[in-house]
Each structure stands twice: as C-alpha cells, then as structure tokens.
Amino acid sequence: MSSDPPASSRPGTPAPPSSPAPPHDLEALLELLRRGFPTLSTQFQGGARYLLDHPQDVPVLSMRKIAASAGVQPATLVRLSQHLGFEGWQAMRELFVDALRGGAQPYARRARKVVRESSASRMLGEMLEAQHHNLDRIAASNEKTLPQAAELLSHAACVHVAGFRACFPIAFTFHYVYRLFRSTVHLIRADAGTLEMELRGLAPKDAVVVVSFAPYSQESIRVAEAARECGCKVIALTDSTVAPIALAADCTLLFSVESPSFFPSITAGVAVVEALVEQLLARKGKGAIRALEQAEGELHRTGAYVTPGHG
What we know:
Blueprint: H1 26-36, H2 42-53, H3 63-70, H4 74-83, H5 89-101, H6 107-117, H7 120-142, H8 145-154, E1 159-163, H9 168-179, E2 185-188, H10 195-199, E3 207-212, H11 218-230, E4 233-238, E5 251-254, H12 267-284, H13 286-301
Parallel strand pairs: 1-2, 1-3, 3-4, 4-5
Helix pairs in contact: 2-3, 2-4, 7-12, 8-12, 9-12
Pfam families: HTH_6, SIS
Protein name: DNA-binding MurR/RpiR family transcriptional regulator
Keywords: DNA-binding, Glycolysis, Transcription, Transcription regulation
C-alpha cells in the first residue's frame, strides 16, 4: 500500500514560502532592520534596536551579553537571525565581524606598512590619487542629503557643531566659515572636561552637527545622544551610514577618509562642509551677504589682516 505524497507535491498545493535571502553585508542588514522595524514583533524590535544602536558591540560581545543588554532572551536573537534569512545568530554575526575587519586599522600598523612598502618617488602620486577618489565620491553620496542638511540648519534656532580629535579641523572649518554670516553658530569644544556643561545649552529647536569617522570617539556619540534627547535635529558627517552617530541622525552626510598614509584623510570631510556652507549662504541670500560684509569689514578694521605695504 503506497503512502500519500507529501502535501507540497500534491497537484494544486502551493509550495511553502522560501526563506528570504540574507543580506550580503552589514550596511544592507542594518538598512533591512530599519526599513522593517515597524513590522517586527515587540521582542524582535528589542533585539533589532540594539543591533542598530550598537553594531560595534556585536563582534566583541557574546550573544548572551548582547541579549541581556537588549532586554531579550538569547533565543530571540537566534529567531531574529532566522527571520532575516540567516541559518542562525553566528551567520548574521559574521557580517558585523567582517565589517570590523574591514574597518580602520590601528595607526601604528598602517605606519609600519607605509615605512615598509612606500617609496618617496610614488608617495605623492598615491596620495593625490586617493584624494581624487575621495572627492569624486562626495557628489554621489550627498546629492540628496546636502540640500536636506541645509534645510534643517537654515530653520534651526541655533546650530551647535562638534568634532573631536582628528575630526576637530572639519568641525572648526564649518563653524568658522558659517559663523562669518550667522552669529548663532556655536562650537562644542569640551575643553578641560566641560562637555556636559556645553551640552546644557542644547534646546529643542536647535540643530547639532556632529563629525566623526572610525575609530569613532565616545564624545561624538555622547553629543549625538544628548542632542536626540533634547529634541534637536542631528546632522551626522561621517564615513558610513552605519556609524554610531548616523544611526539616529535626521540627516547623514558621507565622506571617505581613505589614504595611503598612516592617518585617515580629512580632505573630503572639509570639502563636504565647504559645499554645505555654500548652500547655506545661497539660501540666506542678501541677508547673508550683509552679515558677511559686516564681519569682513570688522576683521579689516581690527587689524586682523596685514595691510598691503605694511608687512
């Protein structure tokens, strides 16, 4: 006596739905989580929120510690991984590990490579080629977001700017140039441990520009979190859409820091803020021109510049 064929092989029986193909890299995974977050169960949302907010923790912490921090059971992370098309937690975790491996290397390790492999005759050419590549990527990465950032900043009551360590020159450039025609621009410096005091000045109608690239500074994350808690609009200038400051930002501007040298390049970051200030000036129009003329005249009157013939 023959047994009945399985249901899936009977005529007219629809095939069972296949599992979705898992994302191929970390950026695609986090975008999938952001896009599908509202449709997830409460438990899955708890796990997804932690992955989105703390991607840097996944390669270095155990699944149990991540689950405890997220307020869910370890099994929830396993089921969430499978829901996203992975065989299990470890398969999904590999995307976070791969992203970490491809991230910023320690400066000393990069310096050893420069000393070992580079020669004076080719260093300049390699550097210029890297800078051209970084600058070419700006337009494609920010064509839509630059106008959005300018819109947010134009409507803010005050603008606060923060960038620490290697990111400080980018933040300072934006603050200095923007302040030439807008007085309500403030630089968060955190001198002598005063960061918390400076963050008290944030208000709900303000906008906060935070600059950070890998390795991401703790101060930049604190500024972004404080700005979000205060109800400020947050504009992130960073090297990745999954950078800690970008995950909760209202607008993200991207720039590449690739360099053949041991230290990340800030050239493209400076170019992005220059392009942003240009759009802000154009938006303000004649009012910006009057303010700029007044600031420039004051600089000349106070002797800030050398007068021709008086070296």
